[in-house]
């Protein structure tokens, strides 16, 4: 019984040359790998009974034999009400609004509105994310203050607000008739929770600019997941840009700054957490892409995923007793309360701006805006929190964003060429 704590206690220092702040070494229970398994056990306590219930209803042929007041709920959760669409486009994003009667000035205003909304939402979200996870609260001249450690509570805060916003939007606007079995959202929800948790937790070990570049490099695992999950094929330029992104990220990660502090050291734990974030997030996007074969809107997708996200996170927090502890932390530090609420508001508003921008201007314009946002986020983080970037690291950043813009340009050219294809020819699917 004493072996497991000893092994877990030794894991944070296994990486060669890794320097971790003393606050992260308070106890083996604070180590991220232990918390990950505890969270996973909490999710399993909900997933396993749910899986058994689904199998039970399917084996009983509940659609034919079921009756009573619970029948509509069970039917919607387990079986759904519609078959899949023949073409995936039927359930994807609604047709992009064309500027038929709108003036050029109106379109420019809409574009500026979308760009400003996305930049404000996600730049604020990035700054707050780094503030919450890397700085202390309640510090005085005699008291160093305390850090907030439970990343899962922040995930819960984000998801509960996103669930509320999506639910109100679906209730107030006309949506397609929903047909997907509700339980299928749980797969994307679980991977989304884990990717968000890894993202927050990684900031305890790596700098924010490193995390942003790692997000930019998730094109590579997304392509790999696309091949595994959806059997997609890709063009040569997609492999080229993916390779350039890998080179740029490697240049940044391997560059060394002379005045690095503990907060900016890229540690082994941080790299593992980033890899976890990228893998889970890649699965989420590909599973959601597969779910769009049912007729649904993006907001319905947002609602369905966040229903399960709230269920998983609040269940795990209650089982661990961490929900009350996090609420006590909020009561002790009003500044943290404001930051956590604003963090959730930015996350929910950002998702709505994503849907609106893609609907109005298409995915290419949205990708350009978000790529610029990543560059601005690195610059803002360096200015506010004093991160240093070497010349080699700066060149690596430039290579990454050059590859991203090259990817957007090549994709737009491919779409123009696809429109000219004769009937019967199908274009290659892309991420």
Based on CA inertia axes, which overall geometry fits? globular
Give the oligomeric state of the chains in this entry, treating copies of one chain as homo and distinct chains as hetero: single chain
Largest sheet report: none
The total beta strand count reads: 0
Tell me about this structure.
Belongs to the nucleotide-sugar transporter family. SLC35B subfamily. Keywords: Membrane, Signal, Transmembrane, Transmembrane helix, Transport. Residues 1-17 form the signal peptide. Its main location: membrane. The chain contains 16 helices and no strands. The chain starts with a helix and ends in a 12-residue tail after the last helix. By secondary structure, the protein is an all-alpha fold. The longest helix has 31 residues, at 104-134. The chain has helices at residues 3-10, 32-59, 62-65, 71-79, 104-134, 151-172, 185-202, 208-216, 219-229, 236-254, 268-291, 298-320, 322-332, 334-361, 363-385, 391-419. 69% of the residues lie in helices and 0% in strands. The protein has a domain at 111-135 and 148-417.
Give a concise summary:
One of its GO terms (cellular component) is endoplasmic reticulum membrane. The protein has 431 residues and is mostly helical.
């Amino acid at each position: 019984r004493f072996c497991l704590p000893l092994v877990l206690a030794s894991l944070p220092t296994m990486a060669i040359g890794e320097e971790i702040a003393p606050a992260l070494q308070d106890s083996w229970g604070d180590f991220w790998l232990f918390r990950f398994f505890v969270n996973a056990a909490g999710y399993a306590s909900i997933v396993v009974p749910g899986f058994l219930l689904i199998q039970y209803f399917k084996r009983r042929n509940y659609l034919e034999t079921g009756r009573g007041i619970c029948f509509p709920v069970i039917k919607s959760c387990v079986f759904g009400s519609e078959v899949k669409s023949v073409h995936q486009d039927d359930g994807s994003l609604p047709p992009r609004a064309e500027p038929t009667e709108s003036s050029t000035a109106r379109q420019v205003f809409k574009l500026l509105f979308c760009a400003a909304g996305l930049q404000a939402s996600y730049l604020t979200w990035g700054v707050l994310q780094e503030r919450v996870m890397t700085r202390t609260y309640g510090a005085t001249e005699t008291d160093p203050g305390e850090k907030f450690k439970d990343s899962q509570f922040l995930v819960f805060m984000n998801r509960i607000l996103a669930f509320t916003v999506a639910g109100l939007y679906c209730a107030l606007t006309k949506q397609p008739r929903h047909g997907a079995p509700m339980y299928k959202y749980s797969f994307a929800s679980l991977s989304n929770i884990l990717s968000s948790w890894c993202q927050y937790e990684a900031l305890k070990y790596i700098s924010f600019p490193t995390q942003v570049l790692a997000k930019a490099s998730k094109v590579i695992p997304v392509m790999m997941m696309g091949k595994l999950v959806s059997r997609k094929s890709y063009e040569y330029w997609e492999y080229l840009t993916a390779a350039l992104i890998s080179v740029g990220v490697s240049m940044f990660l391997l560059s060394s700054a002379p005045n690095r502090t503990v907060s900016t050291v890229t540690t082994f734990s941080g790299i593992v957490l980033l890899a976890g974030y990228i893998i889970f997030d890649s699965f989420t996007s590909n599973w959601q892409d597969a779910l769009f074969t049912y007729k649904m809107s993006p907001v319905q997708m947002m609602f369905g995923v966040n229903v399960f996200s709230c269920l998983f996170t609040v269940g795990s927090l209650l089982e661990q007793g961490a929900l009350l502890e996090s609420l006590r932390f909020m009561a002790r530090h009003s500044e943290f309360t404001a930051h956590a609420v604003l963090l959730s508001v930015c996350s929910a508003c950002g998702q709505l701006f994503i849907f609106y921008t893609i609907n109005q201007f298409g995915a290419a314009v949205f990708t350009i805006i978000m790529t610029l946002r990543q560059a601005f986020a690195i610059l803002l983080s360096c200015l506010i929190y004093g991160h240093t970037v070497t010349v080699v690291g700066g060149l690596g950043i430039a290579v990454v964003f050059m590859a991203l813009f090259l990817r957007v340009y090549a994709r737009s050219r491919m779409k123009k060429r696809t429109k000219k294809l004769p009937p019967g020819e199908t274009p290659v699917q892309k991420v």
